[in-house]
Amino acid sequence: MSSQDTPEENLPAEPPHGTDAEIAPSDALVPDPGLPPHLPRRQDIDERAAKRSERAVAGLFTLSMLATIGFIAGFVAIDVDKIIYVWPIGHISALNFTLGCTLGIALFAIGAGAVHWARTLMSDEEVVDERHPIEAPPEVRQRVIQDFRKGAGESQFGRRKLIRNTMFGALALVPLSGVVLLRDLGPLPGDKLRHTLWAKGKLLINQNTNEPMKPSDITVGSLTFAKPDGLEETAEDFQEQIAKAALMIVRLEPEDIKDKRELEWGHEGIVAFSKICTHVGCPISLYEQQTHHVLCPCHQSTFDLADGARVIFGPAGHALPQLRISVNSDGYLEALGDFTEPVGPSFWERG
């Protein structure tokens, strides 16, 4: 039988009006029931319960302080190579385990104390505030101030001095963990930044030929790189030492040298300056013969070698340090001491 022949009694009947099957209009939805009635907590009506909560919160903050002290003590006292067995983890570093546990307890105790304080002692009454324009009228601003003062009073921050003081102590001690970790970034430099391998009597060795240098080896307008005698490229600390001791040698006409000290610290117009740029420590290698300028290729700091290697352009903060040189009895160029100031970039305690 085709669908056109289907009798009307076999078609699904329409739901009667007024039944649950009919979709209700939007204005017939369940109304907002509003906030439930506020029920006081035990701490709100029993001061002894409030005191217990206060002691619990203070205890958590105190635990945080003790854990922070334990973090610092463990960092100082435990050997970095000590290994312990912790079930079920296995063999781990005693230092890492101690630092992780103490710092975790310190942070957790502060959070748990704050949550317990908010749930048991601070006001838990919900307040409904209708949305308002961004620019609040004066009466609204005044009400906000009053609400803030009321909330501050209800938090019992001023009354619960034990909580307040222990919270301040916990928050003040926790940042010390980060400060202590900074010490683990590496050994302190001491005075290593202020000294190089140059010393009185050290021969100037040509870095290209690895031979001592004589004044006759250096022509006017040339740029030569030198290292101190005894520093070999096969040395384990070669890169560390050459980064401070690298030297560039130029020969100028004595009458072209403007700085009196530069002339006295050189030999017949031959002057020696640090090769390390005083901006971020890049090696200087570009020399302009006609102007006696050297250029750092990294950030274009420019130094005038005829005027004490002072900065004439770029971000470098001060002139290149000069090494005092002379000629020994064998006719070779030698240093008369170390640099009189630290080489390379500036640092905050630089003299």
Strand order across the largest sheet: 3-4-5-6-11
N-C termini distance: 108 Å
Work out the helix count: 8
**What is the name of the CATH superfamily of the largest domain?**
Rieske [2Fe-2S] iron-sulphur domain
* Overall pLDDT: 86
For the sheet with most strands, the description reads: 5 strands, antiparallel
The amount of beta strand, in percent, is 5-15%
CATH topology of the largest domain: Rieske Iron-sulfur Protein
Subcellular location: Cell membrane
GO molecular function: 2 iron, 2 sulfur cluster binding; metal ion binding; monooxygenase activity; oxidoreductase activity, acting on paired donors, with incorporation or reduction of molecular oxygen
Pfam families: QcrA_N, Rieske
Subunit structure: The cytochrome bc1 complex is composed of a cytochrome b (QcrB), the Rieske iron-sulfur protein (QcrA) and a diheme cytochrome c (QcrC) subunit.
Brief sketch in words of this structure:
The chain is built from eight helices and 13 strands. The protein is of the alpha+beta class and 351 residues long. It folds into two domains: 42-125 and 139-185; 193-335, Rieske Iron-sulfur Protein, CATH 2.102.10.10.
